[in-house]
């Protein structure tokens, strides 16, 4: 769980002891296409790492290549630094695609605060006002 969730849970449990043990958090799901694209980037990274270690021999294990490297392979071998930088950038892109930055507070299944809508985290007084207004 994120640090923000832990801080909010502790804040609520201090101000509303009756909520202790009844506050739950979960990760907001990223868009489905982002998950698939992130997985594809991960597979490409694994293949690229295998290619770095195995060199030309890797093409013997790719069924549809018949042991022959593709036309772009010599350029990859000539620019190893570019390949390494691309691998690192691919990892960053994959991570950023699956991070939503979402933070929502629900009370009895109703959203009482959404970072997605406001673009900011809730303040303590805001949360207290909402929960006290709900009768806690």
From TrEMBL:
Organism listed in the record: Leptocylindrus danicus
GO molecular function ontology, one term from the record: thioredoxin-disulfide reductase (NADPH) activity
One Gene Ontology biological process: cell redox homeostasis
Ranges annotated as spanning the membrane: 33-55
Matches recorded under InterPro entries: Selenoprotein_Rdx-typ, Selenoprotein_T, Thioredoxin-like_sf
Top-level taxonomy: Eukaryota, Sar, Stramenopiles, Ochrophyta, Bacillariophyta
A matching Pfam family: Rdx
Protein's UniProt name: Selenoprotein T
Keyword Transmembrane: yes
Gene3D superfamilies: Glutaredoxin
GO CC terms: endoplasmic reticulum membrane
Keywords assigned by UniProt, alphabetized: Membrane, Redox-active center, Signal, Transmembrane, Transmembrane helix
Keyword Transmembrane: yes
Signal peptide span: none
Taxonomic superkingdom: Eukaryota
């Amino acid at each position: 769980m994120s640090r923000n969730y832990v801080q909010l849970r502790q804040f609520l449990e201090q101000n509303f002891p009756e909520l202790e043990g009844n506050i739950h958090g979960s990760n907001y799901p990223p868009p489905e296409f982002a998950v698939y694209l992130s997985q594809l980037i991960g597979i490409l990274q694994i293949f690229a790492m295998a290619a770095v270690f195995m060199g030309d021999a890797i093409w013997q294990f790719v069924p549809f290549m018949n042991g022959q490297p593709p036309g772009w392979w010599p350029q990859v071998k000539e620019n190893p630094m570019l390949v390494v930088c691309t691998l690192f950038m691919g990892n960053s892109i994959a991570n950023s695609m699956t991070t939503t930055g979402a933070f929502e507070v629900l009370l009895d299944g109703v959203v009482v605060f959404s970072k997605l809508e406001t673009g900011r985290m809730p303040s303590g007084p805001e949360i207290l006002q909402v929960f006290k207004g709900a009768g806690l």
